[in-house]
Amino acid sequence: MTSSEDDVTDADADALRTLLRHQASTVTVVTAPGSPPVGFTATSFTSVSLSPPIVSFCLNLGSSSWPTLARARHVAVHLLAHDQHEVAQTFATSGIDRFAAPTRWRPGPQGAPILDGTLAWLLCRVVDRVTVGDHAVVLAEPELLRHADVGSPLLYHRGRYAGLADAPDGPVRRVAA
After folding, report:
1. Residue of 21, 51, 63, 169 with fewest CB within 10 Å of its CB?
2. Residue 176 carries which DSSP code?
3. Residue 145, exposed/middle/buried by CB under 10 A (0-12, 13-18, 19+)?
4. Cβ-based neighbours of 76, under 8 Å, separated by 6 or more
5. How far, in Å, CA of 43 to CA of 157, rounded?
């Protein structure tokens, strides 16, 4: 089904939220050192620049993680694997100790919590925070990274976690641009 001119509506918060449910997003967990450490699930992670390398993610200013993130010099961004629904849900839940068992993690470089078993992680130096509406856009420069050679990502689409239909675990096939 495709949209038509009859489907036009005002772009208020509810309409935008409904529209964005159609966009599949990679599920990430962002962690930062602190006492206690903080972390949250984000689907807003993206590459901003390759030269210099800069990535971004967004965080609600009302989040319990924001006070720590507002001061953090380094963060770790974890791309979750297709079978890590529980990790995503844990870090999306408010009012709990997200780092308690069964979460498996260790202190990493710069003290950033590193989650075990993720598809990939990046240690990033925060270079800027831009307040936009009720969120902060955090810009960060990757300094270290680690990734698996196989596996597929956890996605968020239409309000639920999903995976790729073909879930390739072999070598990546390059597509000519």
Report:
1. 51
2. -
3. middle
4. 30, 31, 32, 108, 112, 113, 114, 115, 121, 122, 123, 124
5. 10
DSSP 16-50: HHHHHTTS-EE-EEEEE--SS-EEEEES--EEEEE
Three-class DSSP category at 54: strand
Q: Three-class SS of residue 5?
A: helix
Question: Phi and psi dihedrals of 31, rounded to 5?
Answer: -125, 155
Is the pLDDT at 4 greater than 70? The verdict is no
Q: How many CA atoms lie within 13 A of 13 on its CB side?
A: 2
This prediction's pTM:
0.85
Alpha-carbon span 89 to 87, nearest angstrom: 5
Amino acid letter, residue 157: H
Average pLDDT over residues 78-106: 95
CA 177/CA 169 separation, integer angstroms = 23
Tens digit of pLDDT for each residue in 94-121?
Answer: 999 999 999 999 999 999 999 999 999 9
The pLDDT assigned to 11 comes to 81
Instruction: Give the whole-angstrom CA distance, residue 91 versus residue 68.
Output: 15
Q: What domains, with CATH codes, occur in the chain?
A: 25-162 (2.30.110.10)
